[in-house]
Amino acid sequence: MADEDKRDDAEDAGDDADEEREDAPSASDESADDEDEDDEDEDEDEAPPPPPKKKASAKLVREPEPKRRKRAEPEKVVLPPEKAIGAPSRQTLIMLGVMAGATLLMWGSARFACNAHPAQTRKPRDVTTAELSREPKGAALELQQRWNSYDFKGALELAKGGIAEELAKAQSDCEKDAAGCEAKRKAVQDQALATAALLSRGPGSAKVRVISRGGAGGNQTVVYTVEQEGSQWKVSGRGAEDPTPAPKPAPAPAPPAPSGSAAPAPSGGH
Questions:
Q1: What HEC string does 182-229 produce?
Q2: For an engineered disulfide with 233, which of 126, 139, 245, 249 has Cβ 3.0 to 4.6 Å away?
Q3: What is the set of domains in the chain, with CATH numbers?
Q4: pTM exceeding 0.70
Q5: What are phi and psi of 264, to 5 degrees?
Q6: Are 191 and 212 in contact (CB under 8 A)?
Q7: Could you give the CA distance from residue 218 to residue 193 in angstroms, rounded to a whole number?
Q8: HSE of 119 in the Cβ direction (CA atoms, 13 Å)?
Q9: Measured between alpha carbons, how far is 141 from 210 in angstroms, rounded to an integer?
Q10: How many helices (H) and strands (E) does the chain have?
Q11: How far apart are CA 99 and CA 117, in angstroms?
């Protein structure tokens, strides 16, 4: 009986060991499971391959234009009041007034200076007697002008013959009464006027008509005879008025008709 009990106990112990062996996982199974888990982790870590590129189609597809954004309306600028701006300042206004006044003053003074015309702004050039006597007309005109202005000494430079004698006598009379002659000279200053016209001219002589107003000679018309002396012309004589032109010959009368000729017969009529 004892042997049977021991045998039963041994069998029970063997069954229990078999059951524990079945329940406990084997080392190979655990290693296999670990490998499977590692492979899964690696698969998860690896990125999926990119999808294959599609071939471009023959016709280009036009991309839709982007929609234009509407511009935002500009904000209205509100200007501050003039008192807040403070421009232009009082100093600026004063300086502008000063500049305007100075400009007007300078403009007015320049305009007044430009429009001022005094009686004689420049003294005329003194012309010598040699220059005035290069032509017979100039010599006769200058002699008459000097004579009428009581400048007998200057007139003698342009005279010869009988005219020179008359001027010499007038000069001596003026020297006797120097004060009276000087007063007459001042009285007729800028009042004696004369004009001249060349009437005729030859190789060595010419006729010049001179009309004078005022001065020592008064109002008169004189025809002077002017002669050439070297490079100058001098007055040698004078007449009272222009030479009278020769009268034109009267037209000859028509010759009388011959006595034998008969007058034409009048035409008959009814």
A1: HHHHHHCCCCCEEEEEEEEECCCEEEEEEEEECCCCCCEEEEEEEEEE
A2: 139
A3: 136-239 (3.10.450)
A4: no
A5: -65, 140
A6: no
A7: 10
A8: 1
A9: 6
A10: 9, 4
A11: 30
Over its length of 270 residues, how does the chain's per-residue pLDDT go in tens digits?
Answer: 555 566 666 666 666 666 666 555 554 455 555 555 555 555 555 555 665 555 545 455 666 677 777 777 778 888 877 777 777 788 889 999 999 999 999 999 988 888 776 666 667 778 888 888 899 999 999 999 988 888 888 888 999 988 889 889 988 888 888 888 888 888 887 788 889 999 999 888 999 999 988 877 778 888 999 999 888 899 988 875 554 444 455 555 555 555 544 445 555 444
Structure token digits, residue 256: 């009388």
- DSSP letter string, 9-78: HHHHHHHHHHHHHHHSPPHHHHHHHHHHHHHHHHHHHSPPPPPPPPPPPSSPPPPPPPPPPPPPPPPPP-
- Are the CB atoms for 144 and 219 separated by under 8 Å? no
- Look at residues 196, 206, 181 and name the one whose alpha carbon lies nearest to residue 141: 196
Copy the structure tokens of residue 97.
Answer: 């007034």
Residue found under tokens 């509100």: 78
